[in-house]
Amino acid sequence: MGIWDNAFKIPEPPEPTPAERQLLRELAVKIRARGLAAIAAFTVESTAPVHGLGAQGLQMLEPIVGAFFNKAKLQEYKALLENRKAVAYLVELLNEESPAKEDPDVKKRP
To answer: Span 23-45, mean pLDDT?
Structure first.
């Protein structure tokens, strides 16, 4: 087929950089601290086809949202939302088993 082999090929998204991975880890820790890891992972996975639209929505709402949040962080999150591999890494972090916290007041059964 010659010229048609790469005519409609979509480029692979880049792997998240170490700085982006750290940002995603911080986000995952905040989500886990609120006990919303399973719900967040489900929501992120089920809305995968519209992540690009979500990022463009953030771009449109940036003047309003920027009044409440750091604009630089907002730009970073927008870029990560458009990157499929970064989103997959976030879901991976959210699905990890967290270490079980033992309550010292609860007695274990023999």
So the answer is: 93
Token digits for 39?
A: 């719900």
CA neighbor of 59 nearest in space, from 42, 86, 77, 43: 77
- CA-nearest of 48, 38, 44, 46 to 97 is 38
88, 24 in Cβ contact below 8 A?
no
Is residue 100 predicted with pLDDT exceeding 60?
Answer: no
- The type of residue at 33 is A
Separation between Cα atoms, residue 22 and residue 48, nearest integer Å: 21
The pTM for the full model equals: 0.75
Domain boundaries, the chain: 18-95
Using a CB cutoff of 8 Å and minimum separation of 24, what contacts does 17-26 make? 20/76, 20/80, 20/83, 20/86, 21/89, 23/73, 23/76, 23/77, 23/80, 24/80, 24/86, 24/89, 24/90, 24/93, 25/93
Quickly count: other Cβ atoms within 10 Å of residue 91's Cβ.
19
